[in-house]
Specification:
It comes from Heterocephalus glaber. Pfam families: DnaJ_C. InterPro entries: DnaJ_C, DNJA1/2-like, HSP40/DnaJ_pept-bd, HSP_DnaJ_Cys-rich_dom_sf. With 199 residues, the protein is an alpha+beta fold. The strands form four sheets. A two-stranded parallel ribbon has the order 1-8. The radius of gyration is 27 Å and the shape is extended. It has a domain of 87 residues: Sandwich (HSP40/DNAj peptide-binding domain), CATH 2.60.260. Helices cover 13% and strands 16% of the residues.
Length: 199
């Protein structure tokens, strides 16, 4: 008789990776999560209804985001539940997870009021960690391009101008507008102000 038992790895705690003790963050001990208490101020407007929900964005339990390979090729992520159990969430290869996707795990959320043995759903919003610029050599990039679905080609005409994208910093742009630099190259722009009167 052969018996097969699945259990969580004691070394990595089901995370699929192990961080050397010398490289571990002191505050999280290599778990990549830090527990912290925070006082949230709730503003209740006049006329709010009983049971109306107030959402604090980004204030729930947070886990590190998904890597690009995990969003495309599947992943397994352990999540600590409210009753201190660890559940492993699985996304199958080819089951694409997009940035901002919201999914749920049935019956793993908060207990339902007056029904202590029933729980709601655990809601998960996915964040995707995209790789840095230049992470692939040109050879590997062309190989990746062959594996991915084809991109749409644009038929260029003489009326089209070719431009390139640049990084945008809204603070820098505000400063440029404030100092009038945004209009320096514009020959048609007339600056306001007091003009000298001659008779």
């Amino acid at each position: 008789m052969v018996q097969q038992i699945q259990s969580v790895c004691m070394e990595c705690q089901g995370h699929g990776e192990r961080i050397s003790p010398k490289d571990r963050c002191k505050s999280s001990n290599g778990r990549k999560i830090v527990r912290e208490k925070k006082i949230l101020e709730v503003h209740i407007d006049k006329g709010m209804k009983d049971g109306q929900k107030i959402t604090f964005h980004g204030e729930g339990d947070q886990e590190p985001g998904l890597e690009l390979i995990e969003t495309l090729c599947g992943f397994q992520k352990p999540i600590s539940t409210l009753d201190n159990r660890t559940t492993v969430i699985t996304s199958l290869p080819g089951q694409i997870v997009n940035r901002g996707d919201i999914k749920c795990v049935l019956n793993e959320g908060m207990p339902i009021y007056h029904r202590p043995y029933e729980t709601g759903h655990l809601i998960i919003e996915f964040k995707v960690n995209f790789p840095e610029n230049g992470f692939l050599s040109p050879d590997k990039l062309s190989l990746l391009e062959k594996l991915l679905p084809e991109r749409k080609e644009v038929e260029e005409t003489d009326e089209m101008d070719q431009v390139e994208l640049e990084d945008f910093d809204p603070n820098q742009e505000r400063w440029r507008h404030y100092n009038g630099e945004a209009y320096e190259d514009d020959e048609h722009h007339l600056r306001g102000g007091v003009q000298c009167q001659t008779s």
